[in-house]
Amino acid sequence: MKKAVILFLLVLTTKGHSQFAKNLFSKDPIINLENWQKQRVYFGYYLGFNSFDFKFDYKTPQPDDIQVKKTTGFNVGVVADLRLQEYINLRFEPGLYYTKRDLYFPGVGTSESDYLREVNSTYIHFPLLLKFSALRTGNVRPYLVGGMSTTLNLSSNAKSQDDNYQQKFRVKQWTAAYELGFGIDIFTEYFIFSPSVRGMFGITDELIRDNTSPSGYTDNIDSMKSRAILINFTFH
């Protein structure tokens, strides 16, 4: 994420983009793509980063919670935008998300193969969002976005007959979540660049319990839900 931000700042400061930066931040800029967002439907694509976590709720309190080690994943997808009125748009942003989380189960076994589970996830993500835009100022237009999403996990292991005692961590294939975030449309001469930050909060339990009973891995878990921070760079 830091590298991407630094790269973007470098692009803005290069000689070839100096006029763009001057136009963007000047008091009386030349208005770029003035009628672009007045279209009924327009499309784009995005690239980005993610950081996924798990939120655990327990049936009974336990001395040590399950620890989640997060990593930075990546997102890629397309955008279809339907203009409902001047300040409200309906957006469909299907994409491919990849992420990895390591789970540490306290008090389960003594070796790493017992207490550590690597959860590699490849998601096909289907968010349906409402975008609420502010009044455009020059070549900048901030917005809020929120809605619902459903996700297909291609790495769920849901059909596996093995469980954690065969070192197989299983989750459900389909989950649902709600999403909230904000961003900014930056109008250049040829395209709209839209960086955004969004939080995703799972609303369905996605854990598949172990077949083995009793299980030190899943017996005390009442629910396990994904949550994530999503950073996307969209181009229209």
Automatic annotation (TrEMBL):
List each copy of the Outer membrane protein beta-barrel domain by range: 39-206
InterPro entries named in the record: Beta-barrel_OMP_2 (IPR025665), OMP/PagP_B-barrel (IPR011250)
- What is the official name of this protein in its record? Outer membrane protein beta-barrel domain-containing protein
The organism encoding this protein is Flavobacterium nitrogenifigens
